[in-house]
Amino acid sequence: MPSFLKEFFNRNGTGMGLTILGLVLFWTIGLIILPQLSMLDFSFRPNLPPPEIGGPKDVYTLENYKYLIYGPEGGSQDYNTVDLRVFFRTLVAAVCVTIFNLILCYPIAYYLGQSKGSHIRIFAIMLIIPYWINEILRAFALRIIFGETGVLNTLFVGLGIWDTPFDFIRNDIALYAGLGYAYILLMIFPIYNVIESLDRNQIEAARDLGAPWWRIHWRVVIPYAKPGISSGCTMVFMLSAGALAAPQILGGPSSLWFTQLIYQQFNDNNDWPQGAAYAVVLLVTCILFVLAMMRLFKVNMGDIGK
Amino acid sequence: MSAGIGVDLESLWIRFGDFVAVRDANVHIEGGDFFSFLGPSGCGKTTILRAVSGFLEPSEGNVLIGGKNMKGIGPNKRPTALIFQNLALFPLMKVWENITFSMEIKGASAAERRRRADELLDMIALPDQGDKLPSELSGGQRQRVAIARALCAEPDVLLLDEPLSALDLKLRQHMRTELREIQQRVGITFIYITHDQGEALTMSDSIAVMRAGVIDQIADGKTIYNDPATAFAASFVGENNVFRGKVKRVMGDEALIATNRSGDLVARISTANRGKLAEGDDAMMFIRPEAFAIAPEGATGDHFVTARVTHEEFEGNAFNIFTEGDGGKEIKVSIPNLGQSFKDHTGQNITLEYDARNAVVVPAGELAAE
Amino acid sequence: MNSSFLRISIWVYLAIFFAYLLGPLVIMSLTAFNSSSFPRISPWECLTFQWFTELFHDQRILNGIKNSLIIGAGTVVLSVAMGLAGALMLTQIWPKLRATYYTIIIAPILIPGVVLGISTLVFWDRINRMLGLGADSVLSNGVFLTVIGQSTFIASYCMLVLVARLQRYDTALTEAALDLGATHAQAFRKILLPFMRPAIASAAVLAFLASFENYNTTTFTFGEYPTLTIELAQKVRYGITPAISALAFIIVALTVFFALLNEAKLRRQELVAAARRNAMVQDLGGKIRLPSFFAGNMAAVLLVVFAVATITMVGTAAVYSPDQCIANVKEQKRLEAERRIQELRKQREEQRKQREAQEAEQGGAAQSAPKPSNNSGFGGVFAPGALGGGADAEPEAEEPPKGNGGFGNVFDPNSLSGDQ
Ligand SMILES: Nc1ncnc2c1ncn2[C@@H]1O[C@H](COP(=O)(O)OP(=O)(O)O)[C@@H](O)[C@H]1O
Ligand SMILES: [Mg+2]
């Protein structure tokens, strides 16, 4: 027995040690690692009816990945433009949502982090309440507002600002607003946490030296808050790229989200391996993208998840 | 005094990876004794205590309690109770619940526990404080609660890890006497850890002096003070002036040392080193500040030291004279204040005299850091 | 001047921000009380509680709630247990493995929920097949799969909450308990667990909320046991009714209630602590003050207001009957509709005449028709496109959302749902 394990059991006792170790192994291996590997493996297999699984036809193949790039065999187009477009649109839109959220939330996080008083707690509650409410209901609320006869259209048309209702949904505005809305808290909290620990004197000192407010932010606050900002951005990006409810409810009829394609593969086409392949592509792309961004902005992995 | 249960360490080694925290410790602790481990911080005292209480498996060697080998017996099965360096009182339990935790484990009723807690609270002079939380007590009170909690488990051996280090000086001195009294009242073996030689000397029946994982000497306090076995023990316990040199001649229990700075001086060879020092060996000679007296000017011989005074100070009960000494260190001389007139020697050479029986020589070795 | 400008712009910004954040919830909540069968606040028709009644009679919603509660309970137990074990392991693990281990247990937070759902489904399906179990085994049961799938990432959240507190735990306390004769299990139960209790409570609440609202993972794993969120999603995707607003209102109200309760409790603890500190300096007596629970405790005051409002509302709901109002509105609508139809007929007539005169082959009357001022009155029922359909039929203003077969779905506000 390695000395680490021996010490572990000495410290925790055999019974407790086994319980802890068992739970941790179940979680890490049984729930995290093996399912992901299993999905990866599955994505390289053909879609077979259950009796043929494990049979002679069950061989590894790249078909599912080829499908994403080239489309169905003998299809009319050289590339699977529909799915690829959805894929890139999802990524770009997720980046946009992230940037939008950052711009929206940074001032709030800064304000909350730097001011004191009991109203801050009330603000915090007001921030958290929408987050406690079901994702579907949040999307539903926005749907009421952005609908063709929703509050905004009634208001603007009623005031005579527009003469026809504007279709927020078809133009994806509702979707972006909804995605941004859903992840506000995830952007604010990491930034708030970091900024709260920023010594006010640093800002005062910079102000004393005559720095204008934007320079103070650019040179002092933002560099300091970088771990929080990157943490928030990573979470918002990953979650918006992986969002399903908001696109389903708020998305325009002609614009799909990549997760919806995955959903269709599973639930409508009943092609699990294909869906798994798409899921792998989504996961890997998102991770690579986040890692690249972290590289670009020189952020450490350890800062994430604080 | 050997009614209690004794503890033995047999060739005990404890390693953390490649680092040796305890090196070949052999200790016999008499039952019912107040035994101290004395050494600077980081020398492995806590490590030894944790091996005795069962939190650490020795890498080699054995721990015996009452003659019984403790190998494979967990801390909850050993007849020891440990008072932690930071006390480790349970913060969410009231004082009386803290004290009787060991009874709760055995399933004693609340009434029974309450009764026992009151007894113990009386003993530690904290009556009516049972319903407070530990955080509502002062440092000294918390200290006593920790002792009561350990005693409530009715251990055969009580282990104390620098229990007084967090207290202020006054309280520390008071608690010394109190601890010693408690030990004599309950009559069990106390193993006490400290880096404070004053504590070790005042309370202990026996002291083990430790240095970087090695036990240098085990003896009663008087012996350690007067007859240190190593240079480390001599320099760590009490104030001491060191003179380096080589053994010039061995004369029975005494030796003549050719010191680097102060000529040939005579000293008693410490008991542990008799027969081990030979001519030409590197040696260290120690003379306590209070062992010097001012000699008439011009006196010479093998028990006179002449040096230039750098400064002097008056300490109330004594006059201290500091002179240039060996290896950049000063020689400190302490003359008791008996009301005599005292002349300032600063800048002058003075001659000091000592009795060879009060100077001790040991083989050269590591000195304690200041 | 500069600083006051800054101050004003901060407040404006905050106002806009919180309007964005809370506005949708307020509007959604209000629509629960409007008798209009499409959730909206303007035009306001009648105050009604019928949507609540409808909600409580919706078997699928009730069943969804039941499933959500079962799954939530399972997820709380599993993810708090795994989160605690994970946190304990994190504080003890061999330093060389630490970074890897941390990455593994934090990863589920970043993995898209869809991916977690799929991998859970695929993996347990395979295990099920390997064990030769049928399609109705425990391993392919929706509750099991959902609990497992959700716990994968919810345990990470729990771990983060728990490890924050565990880092402040002094392991000497456990050792002290062992030293005093406790077994490891006793030391865990009597010392570590009480210390961790507040964090465990937070983690459990967090886990339950996360499980309750989860959609992305659950949508792949629920099988025969649709949760409330799944049912809601189905409803919202295929047609929205104010009954959903009613449910949303209840959830919002509960959330606000518990948030206030928690805040009031915290404030009270703070005030008590402050009072204790001041008690020595300042004599507490001699002044008239609010009952101590309320003094300086905004949240407590709000809580009471909230409770009173709830009681009032329930009381009103019990005696209030909107039938008269609804009848009036119906009548009004009918009249309005008739008027419109008359107008329309007249227009048609004129157009036909014009067309005949000009011999133009334009078919769609709607294009050239002047826009009716439909937004003043009944909004979407007469949405602009409406005139394009079979304009001659009688629009049944009473029942816009359903059963308007002749009209296609142009009269149906639910045409928004995107099922083109
Ligand atoms: N668990 C451990 N792992 C590695 N090194 C340790 C451990 N515990 C103690 N040590 C090292 O062992 C030496 C002795 O420590 P300790 O017994 O606590 O000293 P002290 O005499 O001050 O009580 C120190 O150098 C310490 O760094
Ligand atoms: Mg120590």
What distinguishing features does this structure have?
heterotrimer, B: 370 residues, alpha+beta, Rossmann fold, OB fold (Dihydrolipoamide Acetyltransferase, E2P), 2 domains, six-stranded mixed beta sheet, five-stranded mixed β-barrel, 20 strands, elongated, C: 420 residues, mainly alpha, MetI-like fold, 4 domains, 68% helix, extended, disordered C terminus, binds adenosine-5'-diphosphate, binds magnesium ion
* Total number of helices of chain B: 9
CATH class of the largest domain in chain B: Alpha Beta
Tally of individual domains of chain B:
2
The CATH architecture of the domain at 62-188 and 226-304 in chain A comes to Orthogonal Bundle
Straight-line distance between termini of chain B: 36 Å
Radius of gyration of chain B: 24 Å
Q: What's the mean pLDDT score of chain B?
A: 90
Mean pLDDT of chain A: 81
Number of strands of chain B: 20
CATH architectural group of the largest domain in chain B: 3-Layer(aba) Sandwich
The major β-sheet of chain A equals: none
The structural class of chain A is mainly alpha
Shape field of chain A: globular
Strand content of chain B: 25-35%
Heterogens: adenosine-5'-diphosphate, magnesium ion
| Low-confidence spans of chain B | none
Choose one word for the global shape of chain B.
Answer: elongated
Strand order of the largest sheet of chain B: 6-7-8-3-9-10
CATH class membership of the domain at 62-188 and 226-304 in chain A: Mainly Alpha
Estimated helix fraction of chain B: 10-25%
Describe the protein in words:
The complex is a heterotrimer of chains A (306), B (370) and C (420). With 306 residues, chain A is mainly alpha-helical. Chain A is 71% helix and 0% strand. Chain A has a domain at 62-188 and 226-304: MetI-like fold (Orthogonal Bundle). Chain A is globular and about 75 Å long. The two termini of chain A are 34 Å apart. The relative contact order of chain A is 0.11. Chain B has two domains: 7-226, P-loop containing nucleotide triphosphate hydrolases (Rossmann fold, 3-Layer(aba) Sandwich); 239-363, RNA polymerase II/Efflux pump adaptor protein, barrel-sandwich hybrid domain (OB fold (Dihydrolipoamide Acetyltransferase, E2P)), CATH 2.40.50.100. Chain B is elongated and about 80 Å long. The longest helix of chain B has 18 residues, at 169-186. In chain B, helix 4 (110-123) crosses helix 5 (139-152). With 420 residues, chain C is mainly alpha-helical. Chain C contains 14 helices and no strands. Chain C is extended and about 100 Å long. At the A-C interface, helix 1, helix 2, helix 4, helix 5 and helix 6 of A face helix 1, helix 3, helix 4, helix 5 and helix 6 of C. Bound molecules: adenosine-5'-diphosphate (ADP) and magnesium ion. Adenosine-5'-diphosphate binds next to strand 2 and helix 1 of chain B. The site of magnesium ion (MG) has 4 residues of chain B, from helix 1.
